[in-house]
Design goal:
The protein is α+β, with helices and mostly antiparallel strands and 365 residues long. It contains nine helices and 26 strands. Among the domains are: 151 residues, Jelly Rolls; 102 residues, Jelly Rolls (Sandwich), CATH 2.60.120.
């Protein structure tokens, strides 16, 4: 039986850092705590790669409950790809979503890392995509400063960086970076090649090109060791370090380059529709934001929409189906659905982030 609104159950994934307390709270767990599943993968059609850890079958693949049974979204899409994904999407990408969206809750600073650009991945890694990432800052834990490391503020030479990474000269490594403050509601783009690390205490929605390609520069953080097979993308260390951008970026340079200002697409008495990430940043995906304090009838394009409630409470009713929404709720609207009637039941604004494939922007040109 096909549904016009698919509410997504939790889909927690192990990573090589600790966190997840805030995700536990959002999902209503009785005893929330940090652990080794600090990420929630939303509507994912790709499996997680965790080299060095025991294999968990199908880890990362999102599912839903259909007629009382758990069904992977990838298999659900295959039952009627035109309804769920749209014909154009299916012709281009098959039953894959084409991007990865997740919620990330860190209790520690993440390992310093960098991802390849699409051009590098295509030339050296036999991959269509690199791993451009985007961050939407959802909040910061009480008592923590919100920050990231991004780009070299004090760049080493290529030869010195190779020595620093191979020898694990962490003092020299950390001197290459300065903390860059982030604020709730900001949108950041993290290009391939720029070294980066998310600071402790941040809750982030991260949307990225659909790969897990990464060079990890720190082999150990807070007692958590990155195994050798997870450090250099299966390449020789010297070759993998070619992905890095050694440009000198001041903190202000980074802000100018990587903070994305929302583009207003529609403003009315109903609310606001903004484009946060679009074709100027990546061809892989778009991120839209709907803000309303009463009701908003979102006339969507004929592509799949993945929704994440970032603030407030409300509901969506399509035909005879109603789904209640609260902060942290995740859901899917099939391509065939033409409009999304959104109702806010909050004293304050209801804010929903919609992630979509990035190849169809005709409605907004």
């Amino acid at each position: 039986m096909k549904s016009n609104i698919i509410k997504l159950p939790p889909n927690r994934v192990r990573r090589n850092y600790l966190g997840g307390l805030l995700l536990d709270r959002l999902s209503g767990k009785v005893d929330p705590a940090d652990g080794n599943q600090p990420e929630e993968w939303i509507a994912s059609t790709i499996e997680a790669r965790n080299p060095g850890l025991d294999v968990v079958p199908n880890e990362g693949l999102a599912y839903t409950i259909n007629q009382g049974e758990a069904v992977f979204l990838k298999d659900l899409f295959a039952q009627d790809p035109e309804f769920y994904l749209g014909k154009n999407h299916h012709d281009k990408l098959g039953n894959d979503l084409g991007f990865l969206a997740k919620l990330l809750d860190s209790s520690m600073r993440l390992h310093l890392q960098a991802h390849p650009s699409a051009a590098f991945a295509q030339e050296h890694l036999n991959s269509r995509w690199g791993k451009l990432e985007t961050y939407y800052i959802l909040g910061t834990r009480p008592g923590y400063e919100g920050y990231i490391w991004l780009g070299f503020q004090n760049p080493p030479s290529k030869q010195e960086w190779e020595r620093i990474v191979i020898d694990q000269d962490l003092e020299a490594m950390h001197k290459c970076f300065e903390k860059i403050p982030v604020e709730q509601g900001q949108v950041w783009v993290i290009p391939g090649g720029m070294p980066h690390a998310i600071g402790e205490g941040l809750l982030v929605m991260e949307v990225m090109e659909p790969t897990d390609l990464v060079v990890r520069c720190e082999f150990e953080r807070n007692g958590i060791i990155v195994p050798p097979e997870a450090r250099f993308m299966g390449m020789e260390p010297k070759a993998s370090l070619e992905i890095f951008d050694f440009t000198k970026y001041s903190v202000q340079d980074v802000k100018n380059k990587c903070i994305v200002q929302p583009t207003a697409l529609e403003k009315s008495d109903q609310g606001i529709h903004e484009l946060l990430i679009g074709e100027k940043q990546t061809e892989c995906f778009n991120i839209h934001r709907i803000i309303t304090s009463n009701s908003y009838d979102y006339q969507k394009s004929a592509i799949i929409h993945i929704g994440i409630v970032s603030k407030g409470q409300g509901a969506i009713t399509i035909e005879n189906e109603t789904v209640s929404l609260q902060e942290g709720s995740t859901f899917l609207i099939p391509a065939a659905v033409k409009s999304i009637p959104i109702i806010s039941t909050s004293d304050n604004d209801l804010e929903i982030l919609f992630c979509t494939p990035g190849y169809d922007l005709e409605r907004f040109r």
